[in-house]
Write the structure tokens for this entry.
Amino acid sequence: MPSRRIAADPQVVWDLLVDTSRWPEWGPSVSAVELDHGDGPRLHSGSTGRVRTPIGVWIPFTVTGFVDGLRWSWRVAGIPATSHAVEPHPDGCVVRIGVPVLAAPYALVCEVGLRRIERLALAAGRGAAR
């Protein structure tokens, strides 16, 4: 399970993970997201929608597990996909992305995503400090 310790407020990191408008900024395999509910870009329990891959293919998804502020998981095209978790840590938080065994090579893509999440979270923290 790829993970990364980030010296940022866990809430800032969580917001990046559940704000679908931000996914293209950190998710290498996501170029756009459309949610089926009309109440903003944030995921919640049972959210459904579709993601567009970098090659332009739209794929449906359903959030299958959700604990606000802590973790969420989903199925993409009906197949169990990644899980996402934020754990508070004395120096900030630890972010984990769970990858199904059959998709083990996708862990390399997740490592890129985790580095991008760290960059975005640290930039947000500097903005708040101003």
About this structure: Residues 73 and 83 are 4 Å apart (CA to CA). The chain has a mean pLDDT of 94.
